[in-house]
Here is the input.
Amino acid sequence: MAKARRIKNKIEDMLEMPKEVYSDTPKLTVVGFEEMFIENYKSILEYEEFFVRINTHIGILNINGFNLNLEKMTNDDIKITGTIESIDLEKNAD
Amino acid sequence: MEFIKIAISYILGYVRVTVEGYYIERFINICINNKILIWNIKREKQGVKLFLNVGINDFKKLCEISKKTKCKIKISKKRGLPFLLNRYRKRKIFALFLIIVVLLILFSSNYVWNIEIQIEDNQVLDGIEEEIEKAGLTVGKNKNKIDSNSIIQKIRLDRKDISWLGIELKGTNAIVKIVKANEAPQIIDENAYTNIVSNKAGIITKIVAQNGTAKVKVGDTVSAGAVLIEGTMTGKYTDLRYVHSIGEVEAKVWYTAVKKVYYTNQEKEYTNREENKYGIKINNFKINFYKTLSNFEIYDTIETEKKAKIFSNLYLPISLVKTTNKEQINVEKKYSIDEAKNIAIEQAKQELDSKIGDKSSILREIINPKENADNIEVTVTYEVLEKIGTEEKIQF
Here is the structure.
């Protein structure tokens, strides 16, 4: 099992592809305190005007702020706008 | 990609929906898993309501999901073209005219409604408009039937003062670009036998014959058409032979202008009052929005026409005609003798200045006023030193 993962990692290094394209690793892009993009998410756990909790493949993402809107939503990315105060990631225990 | 999807959904129509319920996150997740595009999701402040936009086609699916998650669903706004069209469904005549207008614009954009003539360096060509019209480029002609090449050839054959001509059809606007040709001077063959002939009457002040025989002396008075240097030579041992005469002849030439100015004059003067009248012209059919009679007794009329256009080059066959009448009144003006004289001199000088090009060659100005009972007559004479003499072929 460990050997298979090592081979997989090697191939990935050789191809030099961005990680979020071939794996489920989420990619977060924060533009100032007003905008945020999340790629490769799983689902929304909680959504309040002041708090958004999003489940991803590696853990849970918490966003605190005011007037948080989910502007654009597709199968694997979200755009969040509003006043973002803090972001934190909780790693999955595996 | 996302933006295009939303733009398309505006055309297809979308609704703003209010969702009320406890498991709103679950509702959103199910929507996304069913690949329903929702956007602008907003949560109510301190409440359980959720606002979101969804396309018309996906709305039915949304209703099913709301039943599953036990959420209340309510439409708060309807946006997009389908709703807009639905509102005007019963206005059949409105729709009919809308279609007619669109068809008219499409139909009329096949024709040329404006001809713009651009001459390089803002030069003037007399009668070029008529020439273009005669060649087949007229207002109201179908664009497909305009054969630019044959028109260009026709105009260029007819006129010799055009060195280049191009026709560009832009929208309903036909732009004719013209480059004026410099008129070629009449070239006389250097080997031809020529005389030098005066073209003005005057007194000769200088005559130099480089080739040929001088026929006049300094101080002679010549009239127009007199031979100054004859293209003949007689040598000591040779007989008379003809040559191409070369020489320079300078003469004093007089220009005169007579102006008469009356002491009492009826002059028209503008008052500040004016009236604007508007009308619409469709091709050649004019509709006036006013009575033709003016309020003023004496007036000047200025007519300006403005063509309607949609974009910078899409002219329509409709034009707005603005007629401005400026009121005038007759004013009796009296001049003293000196004033009248000055006015007459100024007018005469202006006329003379336009005749002679170079002002520095003026030798003398002679002013001769003649006072009459009710007017003054002023004769202004310029004495100018000028080169006279043009080449002319000897007729045998």
Observations:
- Chain B has five domains: 2-85, 114-180, 194-249, 258-263+335-387, 265-332.
- Residues 337-355 of chain B form the longest helix (19 residues).
- Helices of chain B lie at 2-12, 24-33, 56-69, 81-87, 92-108, 128-135, 148-158, 337-355.
- The mean pLDDT of chain B is 82.
